[in-house]
Design goal:
heterodimer, A: alpha+beta, 3 domains, five-stranded mixed sheet, two-stranded antiparallel ribbon, B: alpha/beta, Rossmann fold
Chain lengths: 453, 125
Protein backbone atom coordinates (compact mmCIF):
# COMPACT_ATOMS: atom_id res chain seq x y z
CA UNK A 1 0.00 0.00 0.00
CA UNK A 2 2.81 2.37 0.84
CA UNK A 3 4.39 1.67 -2.51
CA UNK A 4 1.18 2.47 -4.38
CA UNK A 5 0.72 5.73 -2.47
CA UNK A 6 4.34 6.78 -3.02
CA UNK A 7 4.27 5.74 -6.66
CA UNK A 8 1.09 7.58 -7.43
CA UNK A 9 2.16 10.67 -5.49
CA UNK A 10 5.32 10.89 -7.56
CA UNK A 11 3.41 10.15 -10.72
CA UNK A 12 0.85 12.81 -9.93
CA UNK A 13 3.45 15.40 -8.96
CA UNK A 14 5.37 14.72 -12.13
CA UNK A 15 2.32 15.05 -14.38
CA UNK A 16 1.44 18.39 -12.77
CA UNK A 17 4.96 19.71 -12.95
CA UNK A 18 5.18 18.68 -16.57
CA UNK A 19 2.64 21.35 -17.47
CA UNK A 20 4.61 24.11 -15.75
CA UNK A 21 7.66 26.03 -16.82
CA UNK A 22 9.93 24.02 -14.50
CA UNK A 23 9.35 20.62 -16.11
CA UNK A 24 12.85 20.04 -17.44
CA UNK A 25 14.45 21.19 -14.19
CA UNK A 26 12.74 18.40 -12.23
CA UNK A 27 12.87 15.60 -14.79
CA UNK A 28 15.91 13.99 -13.18
CA UNK A 29 14.48 14.36 -9.72
CA UNK A 30 11.41 12.34 -10.66
CA UNK A 31 13.50 9.73 -12.43
CA UNK A 32 15.57 9.13 -9.30
CA UNK A 33 12.48 9.25 -7.11
CA UNK A 34 10.93 6.46 -9.16
CA UNK A 35 14.09 4.39 -9.11
CA UNK A 36 14.22 4.76 -5.33
CA UNK A 37 10.57 3.74 -5.02
CA UNK A 38 11.06 0.64 -7.17
CA UNK A 39 14.27 -0.34 -5.41
CA UNK A 40 12.48 0.07 -2.10
CA UNK A 41 9.75 -2.31 -3.28
CA UNK A 42 12.36 -4.72 -4.49
CA UNK A 43 14.25 -4.52 -1.19
CA UNK A 44 10.99 -5.05 0.70
CA UNK A 45 10.26 -8.28 -1.11
CA UNK A 46 13.86 -9.48 -1.11
CA UNK A 47 14.02 -8.82 2.65
CA UNK A 48 10.88 -10.96 2.98
CA UNK A 49 8.57 -8.16 4.00
CA UNK A 50 9.99 -7.13 7.39
CA UNK A 51 7.53 -5.22 9.59
CA UNK A 52 9.87 -2.35 10.18
CA UNK A 53 9.96 -1.53 6.51
CA UNK A 54 6.71 0.46 6.85
CA UNK A 55 8.71 3.06 8.78
CA UNK A 56 11.00 3.68 5.84
CA UNK A 57 7.99 4.21 3.61
CA UNK A 58 6.36 6.56 6.12
CA UNK A 59 9.53 8.59 6.63
CA UNK A 60 10.09 8.70 2.87
CA UNK A 61 6.56 9.92 2.27
CA UNK A 62 6.88 12.53 5.02
CA UNK A 63 10.15 13.67 3.54
CA UNK A 64 8.56 13.94 0.11
CA UNK A 65 5.61 15.99 1.44
CA UNK A 66 7.99 18.21 3.36
CA UNK A 67 10.13 18.64 0.26
CA UNK A 68 7.07 19.62 -1.80
CA UNK A 69 6.02 22.02 0.96
CA UNK A 70 9.35 23.76 1.06
CA UNK A 71 9.92 24.08 -2.66
CA UNK A 72 8.06 26.89 -4.38
CA UNK A 73 7.91 25.06 -7.68
CA UNK A 74 5.45 22.56 -6.19
CA UNK A 75 3.05 25.11 -4.75
CA UNK A 76 0.19 23.82 -6.90
CA UNK A 77 0.35 20.25 -5.58
CA UNK A 78 1.03 21.04 -1.94
CA UNK A 79 -2.54 20.58 -0.73
CA UNK A 80 -2.94 17.35 -2.71
CA UNK A 81 0.36 16.01 -1.42
CA UNK A 82 -0.76 16.75 2.11
CA UNK A 83 -3.63 14.30 1.66
CA UNK A 84 -1.00 11.61 2.17
CA UNK A 85 -0.48 12.75 5.76
CA UNK A 86 -3.57 11.00 7.31
CA UNK A 87 -2.52 7.76 5.65
CA UNK A 88 1.05 8.12 6.91
CA UNK A 89 -0.23 9.13 10.35
CA UNK A 90 -2.60 6.13 10.71
CA UNK A 91 0.00 3.81 9.29
CA UNK A 92 2.56 5.05 11.84
CA UNK A 93 0.08 4.80 14.75
CA UNK A 94 -0.93 1.31 13.62
CA UNK A 95 2.71 0.20 13.29
CA UNK A 96 3.50 1.76 16.66
CA UNK A 97 0.71 -0.18 18.35
CA UNK A 98 1.57 -3.32 16.46
CA UNK A 99 5.10 -3.28 17.83
CA UNK A 100 4.69 -1.67 21.25
CA UNK A 101 1.28 -3.04 22.28
CA UNK A 102 0.84 -6.13 20.12
CA UNK A 103 -2.03 -7.31 22.30
CA UNK A 104 -3.93 -4.13 22.01
CA UNK A 105 -3.17 -4.03 18.30
CA UNK A 106 -4.37 -7.56 17.76
CA UNK A 107 -7.68 -6.95 19.50
CA UNK A 108 -8.22 -3.75 17.43
CA UNK A 109 -6.50 -5.06 14.39
CA UNK A 110 -9.59 -4.71 12.22
CA UNK A 111 -10.18 -1.19 13.33
CA UNK A 112 -6.66 -0.18 12.33
CA UNK A 113 -7.00 -1.93 9.01
CA UNK A 114 -10.27 -0.14 8.24
CA UNK A 115 -8.82 3.26 9.28
CA UNK A 116 -5.79 2.66 7.09
CA UNK A 117 -8.02 1.60 4.20
CA UNK A 118 -10.12 4.73 4.59
CA UNK A 119 -6.99 6.90 4.69
CA UNK A 120 -5.72 5.07 1.63
CA UNK A 121 -9.01 5.56 -0.22
CA UNK A 122 -9.10 9.18 0.97
CA UNK A 123 -5.72 9.73 -0.65
CA UNK A 124 -6.95 8.45 -3.98
CA UNK A 125 -10.27 10.25 -3.80
CA UNK A 126 -8.41 13.50 -3.21
CA UNK A 127 -5.97 12.73 -6.01
CA UNK A 128 -8.72 11.69 -8.32
CA UNK A 129 -10.55 14.91 -7.61
CA UNK A 130 -7.40 16.95 -7.91
CA UNK A 131 -6.60 15.24 -11.17
CA UNK A 132 -10.02 16.03 -12.53
CA UNK A 133 -9.62 19.63 -11.62
CA UNK A 134 -6.13 19.55 -12.94
CA UNK A 135 -7.49 18.28 -16.22
CA UNK A 136 -10.10 21.04 -16.38
CA UNK A 137 -7.41 23.54 -15.54
CA UNK A 138 -5.11 22.10 -18.14
CA UNK A 139 -7.87 22.19 -20.66
CA UNK A 140 -8.58 25.77 -19.78
CA UNK A 141 -4.95 26.62 -19.93
CA UNK A 142 -4.63 24.97 -23.30
CA UNK A 143 -7.66 26.80 -24.51
CA UNK A 144 -6.20 30.04 -23.23
CA UNK A 145 -2.95 29.20 -24.93
CA UNK A 146 -4.78 28.52 -28.14
CA UNK A 147 -6.68 31.76 -27.80
CA UNK A 148 -3.47 33.56 -27.09
CA UNK A 149 -1.96 31.92 -30.12
CA UNK A 150 -4.87 33.03 -32.25
CA UNK A 151 -4.72 36.50 -30.75
CA UNK A 152 -1.02 36.59 -31.43
CA UNK A 153 -1.57 35.51 -35.01
CA UNK A 154 -4.33 38.06 -35.47
CA UNK A 155 -2.10 40.70 -33.97
CA UNK A 156 0.73 39.71 -36.28
CA UNK A 157 -1.47 39.81 -39.33
CA UNK A 158 -2.90 43.14 -38.18
CA UNK A 159 0.55 44.51 -37.66
CA UNK A 160 1.51 43.31 -41.08
CA UNK A 161 -1.57 44.96 -42.55
CA UNK A 162 -0.80 48.17 -40.70
CA UNK A 163 2.77 48.12 -41.92
CA UNK A 164 1.58 47.50 -45.44
CA UNK A 165 -0.97 50.28 -45.22
CA UNK A 166 1.60 52.61 -43.70
CA UNK A 167 3.95 51.90 -46.53
CA UNK A 168 1.20 52.53 -49.05
CA UNK A 169 0.31 55.78 -47.36
CA UNK A 170 3.93 56.87 -47.18
CA UNK A 171 4.31 56.11 -50.83
CA UNK A 172 1.14 58.01 -51.66
CA UNK A 173 2.31 60.90 -49.55
CA UNK A 174 5.62 60.99 -51.36
CA UNK A 175 3.88 60.85 -54.70
CA UNK A 176 1.57 63.66 -53.69
CA UNK A 177 4.47 65.72 -52.46
CA UNK A 178 6.25 65.19 -55.73
CA UNK A 179 3.12 66.18 -57.63
CA UNK A 180 2.79 69.30 -55.52
CA UNK A 181 6.37 70.22 -56.24
CA UNK A 182 5.79 69.65 -59.93
CA UNK A 183 2.65 71.74 -59.79
CA UNK A 184 4.51 74.52 -58.03
CA UNK A 185 7.23 74.44 -60.64
CA UNK A 186 4.62 74.48 -63.40
CA UNK A 187 2.81 77.32 -61.72
CA UNK A 188 6.01 79.33 -61.49
CA UNK A 189 6.65 78.62 -65.13
CA UNK A 190 3.11 79.66 -66.00
CA UNK A 191 3.48 82.89 -64.08
CA UNK A 192 6.75 83.50 -65.84
CA UNK A 193 5.21 82.76 -69.25
CA UNK A 194 2.24 84.99 -68.45
CA UNK A 195 4.59 87.81 -67.47
CA UNK A 196 6.52 87.32 -70.66
CA UNK A 197 3.35 87.30 -72.75
CA UNK A 198 1.95 90.47 -71.21
CA UNK A 199 5.31 92.19 -71.46
CA UNK A 200 5.48 91.10 -75.08
CA UNK A 201 2.15 92.74 -75.85
CA UNK A 202 3.18 95.86 -74.00
CA UNK A 203 6.44 95.88 -75.90
CA UNK A 204 4.65 95.68 -79.23
CA UNK A 205 2.34 98.56 -78.33
CA UNK A 206 5.17 100.76 -77.12
CA UNK A 207 7.30 99.93 -80.12
CA UNK A 208 4.60 101.04 -82.55
CA UNK A 209 3.96 104.22 -80.64
CA UNK A 210 7.64 105.06 -80.59
CA UNK A 211 8.35 104.10 -84.18
CA UNK A 212 6.47 106.99 -85.80
CA UNK A 213 7.89 109.89 -83.79
CA UNK A 214 11.29 108.29 -84.09
CA UNK A 215 10.95 108.25 -87.87
CA UNK A 216 10.37 112.01 -87.79
CA UNK A 217 13.40 112.57 -85.60
CA UNK A 218 15.55 110.58 -87.99
CA UNK A 219 14.08 112.06 -91.17
CA UNK A 220 14.25 115.66 -89.99
CA UNK A 221 17.77 115.32 -88.70
CA UNK A 222 18.80 113.78 -92.00
CA UNK A 223 17.16 116.48 -94.05
CA UNK A 224 18.74 119.10 -91.78
CA UNK A 225 22.17 117.75 -92.65
CA UNK A 226 21.29 118.17 -96.33
CA UNK A 227 20.02 121.68 -95.64
CA UNK A 228 23.28 122.56 -93.94
CA UNK A 229 25.18 121.42 -97.02
CA UNK A 230 22.94 123.52 -99.22
CA UNK A 231 23.36 126.48 -96.91
CA UNK A 232 27.13 126.13 -97.12
CA UNK A 233 26.95 126.09 -100.92
CA UNK A 234 24.71 129.15 -100.95
CA UNK A 235 27.02 131.09 -98.66
CA UNK A 236 29.84 130.67 -101.14
CA UNK A 237 27.70 132.49 -103.71
CA UNK A 238 27.34 135.62 -101.53
CA UNK A 239 29.81 138.50 -101.14
CA UNK A 240 30.17 138.19 -97.41
CA UNK A 241 33.56 138.91 -95.92
CA UNK A 242 35.78 135.78 -95.90
CA UNK A 243 36.28 135.95 -92.12
CA UNK A 244 32.54 136.08 -91.59
CA UNK A 245 32.09 133.30 -94.13
CA UNK A 246 34.45 131.04 -92.18
CA UNK A 247 32.67 131.85 -88.94
CA UNK A 248 29.27 131.11 -90.43
CA UNK A 249 30.58 127.91 -92.02
CA UNK A 250 31.95 126.86 -88.65
CA UNK A 251 28.54 127.27 -87.08
CA UNK A 252 26.93 125.39 -89.97
CA UNK A 253 29.50 122.60 -89.52
CA UNK A 254 28.63 122.30 -85.82
CA UNK A 255 24.92 122.25 -86.66
CA UNK A 256 25.51 119.57 -89.25
CA UNK A 257 27.52 117.53 -86.78
CA UNK A 258 24.77 117.85 -84.18
CA UNK A 259 22.23 116.68 -86.71
CA UNK A 260 24.42 113.72 -87.52
CA UNK A 261 24.60 112.89 -83.81
CA UNK A 262 20.83 113.06 -83.62
CA UNK A 263 20.61 110.76 -86.62
CA UNK A 264 23.12 108.37 -85.13
CA UNK A 265 21.34 108.07 -81.80
CA UNK A 266 17.97 108.06 -83.51
CA UNK A 267 19.14 105.08 -85.56
CA UNK A 268 20.23 103.38 -82.36
CA UNK A 269 16.79 103.86 -80.87
CA UNK A 270 15.34 102.71 -84.16
CA UNK A 271 17.22 99.40 -84.07
CA UNK A 272 15.97 98.82 -80.53
CA UNK A 273 12.41 99.47 -81.62
CA UNK A 274 12.92 97.18 -84.60
CA UNK A 275 14.10 94.49 -82.24
CA UNK A 276 11.04 94.99 -80.09
CA UNK A 277 8.74 94.76 -83.06
CA UNK A 278 10.48 91.71 -84.38
CA UNK A 279 10.24 90.21 -80.95
CA UNK A 280 6.56 90.85 -80.49
CA UNK A 281 5.42 90.07 -84.00
CA UNK A 282 3.86 86.66 -84.34
CA UNK A 283 6.13 84.57 -86.45
CA UNK A 284 4.53 84.16 -89.85
CA UNK A 285 7.20 81.74 -90.99
CA UNK A 286 6.49 78.12 -91.63
CA UNK A 287 8.31 75.25 -90.02
CA UNK A 288 10.54 73.37 -92.39
CA UNK A 289 12.97 70.47 -92.15
CA UNK A 290 16.34 71.84 -91.07
CA UNK A 291 19.70 70.33 -90.23
CA UNK A 292 19.88 71.75 -86.72
CA UNK A 293 23.54 70.82 -86.28
CA UNK A 294 24.52 72.79 -89.38
CA UNK A 295 22.33 75.70 -88.29
CA UNK A 296 23.92 75.80 -84.83
CA UNK A 297 27.41 75.54 -86.29
CA UNK A 298 26.74 78.34 -88.76
CA UNK A 299 25.46 80.73 -86.11
CA UNK A 300 28.23 79.81 -83.72
CA UNK A 301 30.77 80.91 -86.31
CA UNK A 302 28.72 83.96 -87.18
CA UNK A 303 28.63 85.09 -83.56
CA UNK A 304 32.31 84.33 -83.10
CA UNK A 305 33.41 86.32 -86.14
CA UNK A 306 31.01 89.10 -85.22
CA UNK A 307 32.84 89.52 -81.93
CA UNK A 308 36.24 89.04 -83.55
CA UNK A 309 35.45 91.90 -85.93
CA UNK A 310 34.93 94.22 -82.95
CA UNK A 311 37.75 92.91 -80.80
CA UNK A 312 40.80 91.54 -82.59
CA UNK A 313 42.26 90.28 -79.30
CA UNK A 314 39.30 88.04 -78.66
CA UNK A 315 39.78 84.33 -78.88
CA UNK A 316 37.82 81.34 -77.64
CA UNK A 317 37.78 77.62 -78.20
CA UNK A 318 34.71 76.40 -80.06
CA UNK A 319 33.72 72.94 -78.97
CA UNK A 320 30.99 71.07 -80.81
CA UNK A 321 29.35 67.85 -79.76
CA UNK A 322 26.74 67.09 -82.37
CA UNK A 323 24.46 64.09 -82.40
CA UNK A 324 24.73 62.84 -85.98
CA UNK A 325 21.49 60.90 -85.74
CA UNK A 326 19.31 64.02 -85.44
CA UNK A 327 18.84 64.44 -89.17
CA UNK A 328 16.28 66.95 -90.36
CA UNK A 329 14.02 68.52 -87.78
CA UNK A 330 10.94 70.67 -88.38
CA UNK A 331 11.72 74.10 -86.95
CA UNK A 332 11.46 77.78 -87.79
CA UNK A 333 14.97 78.23 -89.20
CA UNK A 334 15.21 82.04 -88.99
CA UNK A 335 13.79 82.12 -85.48
CA UNK A 336 15.93 79.28 -84.19
CA UNK A 337 18.91 80.92 -85.87
CA UNK A 338 18.17 84.10 -83.96
CA UNK A 339 18.09 82.08 -80.73
CA UNK A 340 21.46 80.52 -81.55
CA UNK A 341 22.91 83.89 -82.42
CA UNK A 342 21.73 85.34 -79.11
CA UNK A 343 22.96 82.45 -77.01
CA UNK A 344 26.34 82.35 -78.73
CA UNK A 345 26.78 86.11 -78.63
CA UNK A 346 26.06 86.05 -74.92
CA UNK A 347 28.39 83.10 -74.36
CA UNK A 348 31.25 84.79 -76.23
CA UNK A 349 30.57 88.02 -74.39
CA UNK A 350 30.71 86.17 -71.06
CA UNK A 351 34.07 84.52 -71.77
CA UNK A 352 35.48 87.78 -73.18
CA UNK A 353 34.34 89.64 -70.04
CA UNK A 354 35.92 87.05 -67.79
CA UNK A 355 39.17 87.32 -69.67
CA UNK A 356 39.05 91.14 -69.57
CA UNK A 357 38.38 91.16 -65.82
CA UNK A 358 41.13 88.62 -65.30
CA UNK A 359 43.61 90.83 -67.13
CA UNK A 360 42.46 93.91 -65.20
CA UNK A 361 42.88 92.25 -61.82
CA UNK A 362 46.01 90.39 -62.91
CA UNK A 363 44.51 87.07 -61.88
CA UNK A 364 43.99 85.56 -65.26
CA UNK A 365 45.93 82.40 -64.51
CA UNK A 366 45.66 79.86 -67.30
CA UNK A 367 42.08 80.75 -68.18
CA UNK A 368 41.06 79.34 -71.54
CA UNK A 369 37.79 80.73 -72.89
CA UNK A 370 35.59 77.96 -74.18
CA UNK A 371 32.13 77.92 -75.72
CA UNK A 372 30.45 74.63 -76.27
CA UNK A 373 27.43 73.45 -78.21
CA UNK A 374 25.98 70.00 -77.89
CA UNK A 375 22.92 68.46 -79.45
CA UNK A 376 21.12 65.25 -78.66
CA UNK A 377 18.02 63.54 -79.93
CA UNK A 378 16.30 61.32 -77.43
CA UNK A 379 12.75 60.09 -76.91
CA UNK A 380 11.26 62.38 -79.60
CA UNK A 381 12.91 65.41 -78.06
CA UNK A 382 15.71 67.57 -79.29
CA UNK A 383 18.13 68.71 -76.59
CA UNK A 384 20.47 71.58 -77.32
CA UNK A 385 22.99 72.94 -74.85
CA UNK A 386 25.03 76.07 -75.21
CA UNK A 387 27.55 76.42 -72.42
CA UNK A 388 30.48 78.69 -71.65
CA UNK A 389 33.08 78.96 -68.91
CA UNK A 390 32.63 82.72 -68.66
CA UNK A 391 31.52 85.08 -65.94
CA UNK A 392 28.35 83.23 -64.93
CA UNK A 393 25.53 85.12 -63.23
CA UNK A 394 24.47 85.88 -59.68
CA UNK A 395 21.00 84.72 -58.67
CA UNK A 396 19.33 88.13 -58.99
CA UNK A 397 20.56 88.47 -62.57
CA UNK A 398 19.56 84.93 -63.46
CA UNK A 399 16.02 85.65 -62.27
CA UNK A 400 15.61 88.49 -64.75
CA UNK A 401 17.44 87.45 -67.89
CA UNK A 402 14.29 86.46 -69.78
CA UNK A 403 12.61 89.77 -69.11
CA UNK A 404 12.56 92.20 -72.02
CA UNK A 405 14.99 95.14 -71.68
CA UNK A 406 16.99 93.48 -68.95
CA UNK A 407 20.67 93.66 -69.79
CA UNK A 408 23.94 93.69 -67.91
CA UNK A 409 25.88 95.02 -70.87
CA UNK A 410 27.01 98.67 -70.85
CA UNK A 411 24.64 101.22 -72.39
CA UNK A 412 24.52 100.88 -76.13
CA UNK A 413 25.89 97.36 -76.28
CA UNK A 414 22.76 95.38 -75.56
CA UNK A 415 19.07 95.96 -76.01
CA UNK A 416 18.01 93.46 -73.36
CA UNK A 417 15.74 91.81 -75.90
CA UNK A 418 17.84 88.90 -77.07
CA UNK A 419 17.01 86.38 -74.39
CA UNK A 420 13.38 87.39 -73.97
CA UNK A 421 12.97 86.95 -77.70
CA UNK A 422 14.77 83.60 -77.58
CA UNK A 423 12.52 82.53 -74.74
CA UNK A 424 9.49 83.45 -76.82
CA UNK A 425 10.76 81.62 -79.89
CA UNK A 426 11.49 78.43 -77.98
CA UNK A 427 8.34 78.35 -75.82
CA UNK A 428 5.70 79.83 -78.13
CA UNK A 429 7.27 79.18 -81.49
CA UNK A 430 8.41 75.61 -80.87
CA UNK A 431 6.47 74.51 -77.78
CA UNK A 432 9.76 73.83 -76.05
CA UNK A 433 11.59 74.87 -72.91
CA UNK A 434 14.50 77.27 -72.45
CA UNK A 435 16.29 76.93 -69.13
CA UNK A 436 19.48 78.28 -67.68
CA UNK A 437 22.01 76.96 -65.20
CA UNK A 438 24.81 79.12 -63.95
CA UNK A 439 27.55 79.34 -61.36
CA UNK A 440 28.70 82.87 -60.73
CA UNK A 441 32.25 83.40 -61.90
CA UNK A 442 32.46 79.93 -63.44
CA UNK A 443 30.00 79.00 -66.11
CA UNK A 444 26.63 79.33 -67.73
CA UNK A 445 24.59 76.74 -69.57
CA UNK A 446 21.46 77.31 -71.62
CA UNK A 447 19.34 74.27 -72.28
CA UNK A 448 16.82 74.11 -75.08
CA UNK A 449 14.36 71.24 -75.24
CA UNK A 450 12.15 71.03 -78.29
CA UNK A 451 9.60 68.27 -78.87
CA UNK A 452 9.84 66.79 -82.35
CA UNK A 453 7.10 64.64 -83.79
CA UNK B 1 7.12 118.56 -116.57
CA UNK B 2 5.17 119.26 -113.43
CA UNK B 3 4.12 116.16 -111.58
CA UNK B 4 1.34 116.61 -109.05
CA UNK B 5 1.69 114.38 -106.01
CA UNK B 6 -0.81 114.08 -103.17
CA UNK B 7 0.62 112.93 -99.86
CA UNK B 8 -1.92 111.47 -97.40
CA UNK B 9 -0.81 111.07 -93.78
CA UNK B 10 -2.35 111.94 -90.41
CA UNK B 11 1.00 113.32 -89.22
CA UNK B 12 1.13 117.00 -90.17
CA UNK B 13 4.93 117.11 -89.91
CA UNK B 14 5.03 114.96 -93.04
CA UNK B 15 4.33 118.14 -94.98
CA UNK B 16 7.44 120.03 -93.93
CA UNK B 17 9.50 116.86 -94.17
CA UNK B 18 8.52 116.30 -97.82
CA UNK B 19 8.92 119.95 -98.63
CA UNK B 20 12.43 119.94 -97.26
CA UNK B 21 13.40 116.58 -98.67
CA UNK B 22 12.22 117.52 -102.15
CA UNK B 23 13.23 121.18 -101.90
CA UNK B 24 15.35 121.11 -105.04
CA UNK B 25 12.80 119.18 -107.10
CA UNK B 26 9.98 121.49 -106.00
CA UNK B 27 12.11 124.54 -106.76
CA UNK B 28 13.06 123.07 -110.10
CA UNK B 29 9.37 122.52 -110.88
CA UNK B 30 9.69 118.75 -111.26
CA UNK B 31 7.26 117.90 -108.47
CA UNK B 32 4.33 119.70 -106.98
CA UNK B 33 3.22 118.37 -103.62
CA UNK B 34 -0.21 118.68 -102.06
CA UNK B 35 -1.06 117.32 -98.63
CA UNK B 36 -4.11 115.76 -97.05
CA UNK B 37 -4.20 114.72 -93.39
CA UNK B 38 -6.91 112.11 -93.63
CA UNK B 39 -8.49 109.81 -96.19
CA UNK B 40 -11.63 111.94 -96.28
CA UNK B 41 -9.59 115.07 -96.96
CA UNK B 42 -7.78 113.29 -99.75
CA UNK B 43 -11.05 112.30 -101.46
CA UNK B 44 -12.31 115.90 -101.12
CA UNK B 45 -9.10 117.22 -102.67
CA UNK B 46 -9.45 114.85 -105.62
CA UNK B 47 -13.06 115.99 -106.04
CA UNK B 48 -11.96 119.63 -106.21
CA UNK B 49 -8.96 119.00 -108.43
CA UNK B 50 -10.13 116.30 -110.84
CA UNK B 51 -7.54 114.73 -113.08
CA UNK B 52 -4.78 116.88 -111.66
CA UNK B 53 -3.16 114.42 -109.33
CA UNK B 54 -1.08 111.71 -110.99
CA UNK B 55 0.44 110.18 -107.89
CA UNK B 56 -0.89 109.49 -104.43
CA UNK B 57 1.40 108.57 -101.54
CA UNK B 58 -0.77 107.28 -98.73
CA UNK B 59 -0.18 106.07 -95.21
CA UNK B 60 -2.21 103.01 -94.23
CA UNK B 61 -2.72 103.46 -90.50
CA UNK B 62 -4.79 106.59 -90.08
CA UNK B 63 -7.68 107.45 -87.80
CA UNK B 64 -11.00 107.43 -89.62
CA UNK B 65 -10.60 106.25 -93.19
CA UNK B 66 -7.57 104.02 -93.48
CA UNK B 67 -5.20 104.00 -96.44
CA UNK B 68 -6.65 100.69 -97.60
CA UNK B 69 -10.20 102.12 -97.64
CA UNK B 70 -8.96 105.17 -99.49
CA UNK B 71 -7.32 102.92 -102.04
CA UNK B 72 -10.60 101.02 -102.55
CA UNK B 73 -12.51 104.31 -103.02
CA UNK B 74 -10.00 105.66 -105.52
CA UNK B 75 -10.08 102.47 -107.54
CA UNK B 76 -13.92 102.53 -107.46
CA UNK B 77 -14.34 106.24 -108.27
CA UNK B 78 -11.68 106.60 -110.93
CA UNK B 79 -11.77 103.39 -112.90
CA UNK B 80 -10.81 104.97 -116.20
CA UNK B 81 -7.89 107.22 -115.35
CA UNK B 82 -6.51 105.90 -112.12
CA UNK B 83 -3.78 107.88 -110.46
CA UNK B 84 -0.75 105.94 -109.34
CA UNK B 85 -1.10 104.95 -105.69
CA UNK B 86 1.88 104.13 -103.49
CA UNK B 87 1.20 102.86 -99.97
CA UNK B 88 3.52 103.76 -97.09
CA UNK B 89 3.24 101.99 -93.77
CA UNK B 90 5.09 101.12 -90.59
CA UNK B 91 3.71 97.59 -90.80
CA UNK B 92 5.81 96.09 -93.51
CA UNK B 93 4.53 92.55 -93.09
CA UNK B 94 3.48 90.31 -95.92
CA UNK B 95 -0.24 90.38 -95.10
CA UNK B 96 -0.42 94.16 -95.34
CA UNK B 97 1.65 94.22 -98.50
CA UNK B 98 -0.41 91.55 -100.26
CA UNK B 99 -3.68 93.21 -99.34
CA UNK B 100 -2.54 96.59 -100.69
CA UNK B 101 -1.22 95.14 -103.93
CA UNK B 102 -4.36 93.09 -104.43
CA UNK B 103 -6.51 96.18 -104.05
CA UNK B 104 -4.60 97.90 -106.84
CA UNK B 105 -1.71 99.72 -105.22
CA UNK B 106 1.16 100.40 -107.58
CA UNK B 107 3.88 100.20 -105.00
CA UNK B 108 4.47 99.56 -101.35
CA UNK B 109 7.01 101.28 -99.06
CA UNK B 110 7.75 100.72 -95.40
CA UNK B 111 8.54 103.43 -92.87
CA UNK B 112 10.99 104.90 -92.22
CA UNK B 113 10.83 106.05 -95.84
CA UNK B 114 14.04 105.88 -97.78
CA UNK B 115 13.72 109.21 -99.59
CA UNK B 116 16.45 108.51 -102.11
CA UNK B 117 14.63 105.36 -103.20
CA UNK B 118 11.33 107.24 -103.31
CA UNK B 119 12.89 110.02 -105.36
CA UNK B 120 14.19 107.57 -107.92
CA UNK B 121 10.85 105.83 -108.17
CA UNK B 122 9.06 109.15 -108.66
CA UNK B 123 11.50 110.34 -111.31
CA UNK B 124 10.95 107.14 -113.28
CA UNK B 125 7.27 107.92 -113.75
Amino acid sequence: MHFIVAFFLIQYAHSVIQHTDHASKWDNFFKYARIIVFSLVATYYIAESPDWFGWIWNLGLLGLVRFFNQNDDFKSIRSTAQSVLPFVGISMVSDFFEQVFPKFYNSYDQFFQIALSFAFIFCFVIWFYARKQQKVLTQEREERLREEQIAKETKLSLEYLVAERTQELTQQKEELQKTIEELRATQNQLIQSEKMASLGELTAGIAHEIQNPLNFVNNFSEVSVELCQELEEEIDKTNIDDNDKEYIKGIIGDLSQNQQKITHHGKRADSIVKGMLQHSRASSGEKEPVDVNALADEYMRLAYHGLRAKDKEFNAALVTDFDGTIGMVNVLPQDLGRVFLNLFTNAFYAVAEKKRKGIESGQLGDYKPEVKISTKKFDNKLYIRVSDNGTGMPEHVKAKIFQPFFTTKPTGQGTGLGLSMSYDIITNGHGGVLEVDTVEGEKTEFRITIPIA
Amino acid sequence: MNMKILVVDDEEDVKSLFEQKFRREIRGGQFEFSFAFSGEEALEFMQNHPSEVVMILSDINMPGMSGIELLKKIRADHPSAPPQVMMITAYGDAANHDQAMQLGADDFLTKPVNFNELKEKLLLL
